[in-house]
């Protein structure tokens, strides 16, 4: 993988230093959490960080995320109607699939190496740098649950003895 991402073997302390940031236990824990949980919300990251570095505050997590975003180490995405989420896959033009049922987010690759990977019919004079597309739908797991709950053998509205 060309972009920094979940499987990046570079130690998190080296990544933080290379970005010109001071290495702290909170920053180490936040970046570790992001590598393990792509598309995590700040609250989800905090829950993981609290386990890794007890005593770290939610504000410290937000500060680290803000510092990482400013330094170009993370990308913030904010699907409509959902909390902002963060990811460490930053060096390519990729998009996202979002489940409208459970909120799961997955990456969708597009043409890499070109910015943007989509071309609008008009630019209105803008110098385009990237395209951000979100696809909405129902993930396979939620679709299976919806299918199971709509089957005649699983109908909670049908009561015993009624026909």
Structural description of this entry:
The chain is flat. Helix 3 (42-52) packs across helix 4 (58-70). A hairpin with a 5-residue loop joins strand 4 and strand 5. The N and C termini lie far apart (59 Å). The model is unreliable at 1-7 and 154-163 (pLDDT under 50). The strands form 2 sheets. It has a 3-stranded antiparallel beta sheet. The protein has a 3-stranded mixed beta sheet with strand order 5-4-6, with no helix packed on it. Helices cover 33% and strands 14% of the residues. The protein is built from 5 helices and 6 strands; from the N terminus they run H-H-E-H-H-E-E-E-E-E-H. With 163 residues, it is α+β, with helices and mostly antiparallel strands. The protein folds into 2 domains: 1-91, Winged helix-like DNA-binding domain superfamily/Winged helix DNA-binding domain (Arc Repressor Mutant, subunit A), CATH 1.10.10.10; 92-163, Ferric-uptake regulator, C-terminal dimerisarion domain (Dna Ligase, domain 1, 2-Layer Sandwich), CATH 3.30.1490.190.
Can you tag this structure with a few keywords?
Dna Ligase, domain 1; Arc Repressor Mutant, subunit A; flat; 6 strands; 3-stranded mixed β-sheet
Short description:
This protein is an alpha+beta fold. It has helices at residues 12-18, 25-36, 42-52, 58-70, 140-150, and strands spanning 40-41, 75-77, 85-87, 94-99, 105-109, 134-137.
**What's the CATH topology name of the largest domain?**
Arc Repressor Mutant, subunit A
End-to-end distance: 59 Å
CATH architecture of the largest domain: Orthogonal Bundle
- Estimate percent helicity: 25-40%
């Amino acid at each position: 993988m060309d972009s920094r991402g979940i499987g990046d073997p570079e130690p998190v302390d080296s990544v933080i230093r290379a970005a010109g940031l001071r290495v702290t236990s909170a920053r180490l824990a936040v970046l570790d959490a992001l590598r393990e949980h792509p598309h995590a919300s700040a609250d989800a990251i905090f829950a993981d960080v609290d386990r890794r570095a007890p005593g770290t505050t939610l504000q410290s997590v937000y500060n680290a995320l803000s510092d990482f975003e400013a330094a170009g180490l993370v990308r913030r995405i904010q699907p409509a109607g959902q909390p902002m989420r963060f990811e460490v896959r930053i060096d390519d033009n990729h998009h996202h699939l979002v489940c409208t049922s459970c909120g799961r987010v997955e990456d969708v690759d597009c043409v890499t190496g070109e910015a943007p990977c989509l071309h609008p019919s008009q630019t209105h004079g803008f110098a385009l740098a990237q395209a951000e597309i979100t696809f909405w739908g129902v993930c396979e797991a939620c679709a299976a649950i919806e299918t199971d709950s709509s089957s005649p053998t699983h109908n909670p509205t049908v009561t015993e003895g009624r026909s």
